[in-house]
Design a protein that fits this description.
The chain is an alpha/beta fold and 480 residues long. It has 19 helices and ten strands. The chain starts with a strand and ends with a helix.
């Protein structure tokens, strides 16, 4: 009858074939192999007519196309009256894309599929490494990992990566892993596990692509020595909030932590301004702690979980970058900003929120930063001066209007307009006004302290000094 039987050939030794697999192969007359390049093939029953799909590897552009083509042919073969026996390395459900393609299509075609299990590469690898899979071992496909920019791996747990079949792939895989692990992190290349040619080579990660590899090579990545995973930090925060945790942390609320978020954000900014990378590392950790505390409180109240936060921002980033995850093309920064605002407008309209390019600016952010953001957003839709010269004229105009103000309210309003114009001037000069003012304040503080020290050294009483004496000391310090 029409049927597809997918047989796992094991890792490479004929004695690793299951009794069920041997019985199916012995009863068959013809077997289709995904590839002849597998050690077990040499020991198959002698009467079998062996056919393979090796020719497809040479014709297709990539492995994805090869696997789809193989799946399509196996489905056609399985629809014959005699069905088809299809044999694959290892276990049909461990890193075997062709088996998945067959299963997906066979259901639609109404062709039954029988899976004959085989020993995969995982179990012999566990023996070779002397580790327990239930201790959190992560298993991944090297082809899929190599195509990513950041590995979806928990660095606190070991990882076993299969199908590291070429040096080119090993090079891409190395770069992906280096986004999570140190360059000199020790890793282990496993060759032909489960066969008589089995061996292991320990190397630092940066040397991964300097060694020869083949279709029977896999990679073991041990965990980092210290807890560095996001999940470990989540456990720490959840423990602090638990009944057996810290009384202070348990008492915190969204509102009580509000000031801490702002404080930690400013301390991170300060570390950036100082070029203090060690300080930045610490401050980013403190800021991340505030995010996790807020999310943990929401989890406990059943409002949302950290996974919801991450999923939402991940989806938002991809939606707002269709030129990266879609087919749109942008040719300039202006087009990119216009696209960004258009997509945000669509999001607001979909949520039933009145659309304004100024929406979403937090009321609590510092006034200087808010003015800069308002001016920047208005400029994205063309509401702006054509160049800095026009802003200079506006600044001069506002200075004149201050002198004409008569009431305290008018002075405040005109001074605010002047400050807003100066902020827009800084934007046209590509200068962040918050950073510029912060650095100016620090320069003033440093010079003023130097003036105070100089006055003490010369025996001047600060209270008795004239404005001219103070100015002279100031100019002396400034020149120095």
């Amino acid at each position: 009858m029409a049927m597809i039987t997918i047989v796992g050939l094991g890792p490479g030794r004929i004695d690793h074939l299951t009794r069920e697999a041997w019985a199916v192969l012995s009863a068959a007359e013809e077997v289709w192999l995904r590839t002849r390049h597998h050690p077990t093939v040499a020991g198959l029953p002698q009467h079998l007519t062996l056919r393979s799909f090796d020719h497809l590897y040479e014709a297709a552009e990539d492995f994805g196309a090869v696997y789809q083509a193989i799946g399509a042919e196996v489905l056609q073969l399985g629809q014959r009256p005699q069905g088809a026996v299809y044999a694959v390395p290892g276990h049909p459900r461990v890193g075997e894309s062709t088996a998945q393609h067959v299963l997906d299509r066979a259901g639609e075609a109404g062709v039954p599929v029988r899976i004959v299990e085989g020993l995969g590469f995982v179990e012999p690898a566990l023996t070779a490494l002397g580790i327990d899979a239930l201790a959190g071992l992560q298993i991944h496909d090297g082809i899929e990992l190599a195509a990513l920019h950041h590995p979806p791996l928990n660095p606190d747990l070991a990882a076993l990566i299969g199908q590291v079949y070429s040096r080119a792939l090993a090079s891409d895989l190395k770069l992906t892993l280096m986004n999570q692990y140190p360059d000199d992190h020790p890793v282990t290349l496993l060759y032909a596990v489960g066969t008589s040619a089995e061996r292991r080579v320990d190397v630092p990660l940066y040397e991964l692509d300097r060694l020869e590899v083949d279709h029977l090579t896999s990679l073991y990545v041990p965990p980092l020595p210290a807890g560095g995973s996001f999940e470990a930090l989540q456990e720490t925060v959840a423990h602090l909030r638990a009944p057996d945790g810290c009384p202070w942390d348990r008492e915190q609320t969204y509102e009580s932590l509000r000031g801490d978020i702002l404080e930690e954000a400013y301390e991170a900014v300060s570390a950036i301004d100082d070029g203090d990378m060690e300080g930045l590392k610490e401050e980013l950790g403190d800021l991340l702690l505030q995010v996790l505390l807020q999310a943990q409180i929401a989890t406990e109240e059943g409002v949302f979980q950290m996974a919801d936060v991450i999923a939402a921002i991940n989806a938002k980033l991809k939606h707002r970058h269709p030129h990266v995850w879609g087919e749109r093309v942008v040719n300039s920064e202006q087009e990119l900003l216009a696209q960004w605002e258009s997509l945000k407008k669509d999001e607001r309209e979909a949520a039933g929120v009145p659309a304004s390019v100024l929406d979403g600016v937090p009321p609590a952010i510092p006034a200087l930063q808010k003015a800069y953001i308002y001016g920047e957003r208005a400029a994205r839709v063309g509401f702006d001066w054509p160049g800095p010269e026009g802003v200079v004229e506006k600044v001069q105009e506002e200075m004149g209007e201050i002198s004409l103000a008569r009431t305290p309210e008018e002075v405040e309003a005109e001074l605010g307009d002047l400050l807003f114009a100066v902020v827009n001037w800084s934007r046209h000069l590509a200068v962040d006004p918050e950073t510029a003012l912060r650095r100016a304040s620090e320069r003033f503080a440093a010079r003023f302290r130097a003036v105070e020290e100089l006055a003490r050294q010369r025996g001047f009483d600060w209270a008795d000094m004239s404005a001219e004496q103070m100015d002279a000391l100031w100019e002396e310090v400034k020149t120095a």
